[in-house]
Design brief:
It is a single chain. Helix 7 runs antiparallel to helix 8, helix 9 packs antiparallel against helix 10 and helix 10 packs antiparallel against helix 12. The longest helix is centred in the middle third of the chain and has 23 residues. Helices cover about 45% and strands about 10% of the residues. The chain is of the alpha/beta class. It is globular and about 55 Å long.
């Protein structure tokens, strides 16, 4: 029998919280305009820095100006898409050739993950495959990397406060993680004004990635009281501000709320793990040139429905609390969240997996690979292969 106590959480849930760990970036700086601090912040590490950007290096022009004012010279390495093992090897060569003392990741999750991996691999022995999960040897990282500052320009992955870098291996057709507590950035500098002017589609897909991360961390089998608190606040922020960011792109207030929600999502997932959405996203991202945020957005409603159908009664409270945050209603239940999530995805013009290049013939292989993904381990339900394939088939269709 499951006894209840004040706060609508059961004793069976409480016992999980007897032991937990929590870690995040050494320093977090948040606020519109705070990018101006970056030169003075990093120059003690050295006067030459590698800036890892997305496909448009011109977006880092203001950053370079701030660095120059502080007497720091910069070298730019542009990452055209989601990073691969080759991306990290090439970036590491730039660090060596240009004698860079520290690294900045400036952009979305791809640029921040690439910068994170380049900074840590500079000081390790051997090659990157020695340290990778799934396809590599999984050796632990022992040495601190170059000092690293993460500066997000989207409100999505929360990579500015995570201890892993997601890297693609075209040879293996999969995305895997390079992971270590030593990869947590020295500084996460979150300036919401950098997200102003992002296109509708990018704002929508990255924002839904952040919301997905908050939801998955909230119902994760590895959740703890600190991640619960972050997820509760982050879900409310994202639910209230994401559409405003998309449809009122010039307003700073909702951008600030979404930047904070994304930051919370990164801290939460780094400590509580994720779930089936990201378990699927790893192989899909490796097999197709589909943006990570768009993949997660296409999967979220279908994973929520499948999880809700399969959870044990004592898990229902977690799902109800997510629904209460999404709907802003203390009486809301998990079943109502299904309609809310589906409605949000329609309003934000989220495309099904079929529009991202996935077909029914790919489903069995994606499900097989997803079952082995690290993110799947924290999902609140252990879905079998048939259930995983059913989720994918639903996500292929136009809602």
């Amino acid at each position: 029998m499951c006894l209840e106590f004040t706060g609508n959480r059961s004793i069976t849930e409480l016992t999980f919280y007897m032991h937990f760990e929590f870690s995040t970036a050494s320093r977090i700086i948040f606020g519109s305009g705070c990018l101006a601090q970056i030169g003075a912040m990093g120059r003690d590490w050295g006067r030459r820095v590698l800036i890892v950007t997305g496909r448009d290096p011109e977006r880092a022009s203001a950053l370079r100006e701030h660095l120059e004012e502080a007497g720091v010279t910069s070298v730019v390495y542009s990452v055209a898409g989601e990073p691969t093992l080759q991306t990290i090897e090439e970036g590491s060569e730039v660090v060596r050739a240009e004698a860079c003392d520290w690294v900045i990741g400036f952009g979305g999750g791809s640029a921040m993950d690439a910068g994170k991996a380049i900074a840590i691999m500079h000081t390790q022995e051997g090659e990157i495959l020695d340290y990778l999960e799934v396809i590599g040897k999984g050796r632990p990282i022992r040495r601190e990397g170059l000092p690293y500052i993460a500066v997000p320009t989207t409100s999505g992955t929360g990579a500015e406060v995570t201890k892993n870098a997601v890297l693609g291996s075209p040879e293996h057709g999969i995305k895997v993680s390079l992971r270590s507590p030593l990869m947590l950035p020295r500084v996460a500098l979150v300036d919401p004004s950098l997200t102003l002017g992002l296109p509708f589609e990018i704002t929508a897909s990255t924002g839904l990635d952040a919301l997905t991360q908050l939801i998955e961390a909230a119902v994760s089998s590895r959740a703890n009281p600190m991640t619960d608190a972050l997820c509760e606040k982050g879900i409310r922020l994202a639910a209230a501000s994401l559409e405003r960011c998309c449809f009122q792109p010039g307003e700073i207030a909702p951008r600030e709320d979404m930047s904070l929600a994304a930051l919370y999502s990164g801290i939460a997932l780094a400590n509580a793990g994720l779930g089936a959405v990201h378990g699927f996203a790893a192989p899909i991202g490796g097999m197709f040139s589909a943006p990570h945020g768009a993949v997660c957005a296409a999967l979220l409603p279908h994973v929520w429905r499948a999880n809700l159908k399969a959870i044990q009664p004592q898990q229902k409270g977690k799902f109800d609390r997510v629904a209460q945050g999404l709907l802003g209603d203390a009486a809301a239940c998990a079943e109502q969240a299904q309609d809310w999530i589906e409605g949000l995805c329609k309003r934000l013009r989220i495309r099904p997996l079929s529009a991202l290049g996935v077909s029914a013939s790919d489903v069995t292989e994606i499900a097989r690979r997803a079952a082995q993904a690290s993110s799947m381990k924290a999902n609140p339900v252990n879905h079998g292969s048939a259930a995983l394939e059913a989720i994918l088939m639903e996500a292929l269709r136009v809602s």
